[in-house]
Amino acid sequence: MESAPRRRDDKPWTFLTNHARVLIAIARDPGLRVRDVAQDIGITERAAQLIITDLEEAGYLTRTRIGRRNRYTVNADRPFRHPAEADHDVQALIELFTGRGASPGAARPSRGATGAPAPARSL
To answer: How far apart (Å, rounded) are the C-alpha atoms in residues 4 and 24?
Structure first.
């Protein structure tokens, strides 16, 4: 029995790596727990921890221990790693996906039940 030919758009690839997704998640909320990062992105906690360690070792993140929690600072002036993009820093990526720069205390936008940003409330 022959199966239908596989369409090219069925391949499971994406434009962003998990490293980029972790960096963006932390830029949105510098106080996220590793568990929350993993859940938001759809990876294991161990994978999230390894990626955070990679980003710290490469200088993209700085970790500060506050009590039992970690708070991260994104060093957004670091360049992309690939030579083709090395003349750009990650600030542009963060701004593209968060709508703002990587400020250490930036609050994460509220999300509705669908995961979309909650509508702004007027006072």
So the answer is: 38
